């Protein structure tokens, strides 16, 4: 049960990191668009 809990925690963290990376990429893209449109 402990191994399963650890694996699910690692899985959740990796999903969270992917989500954060996705958000940061979108923010960078928006910043670039704003920068070039000025």
TrEMBL record:
Keyword Transmembrane helix: yes
Membrane-crossing segments per the record: 16-36
Keywords: Chloroplast, Membrane, Plastid, Transmembrane, Transmembrane helix
Name the UniProt record assigns to this protein: Uncharacterized protein
Native organism: Euglena gracilis
């Amino acid at each position: 049960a402990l191994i399963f809990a650890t694996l699910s925690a690692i899985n959740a963290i990796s999903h969270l990191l992917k989500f954060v990376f996705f958000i940061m990429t979108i923010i960078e893209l928006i910043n670039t668009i704003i920068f070039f449109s000025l």
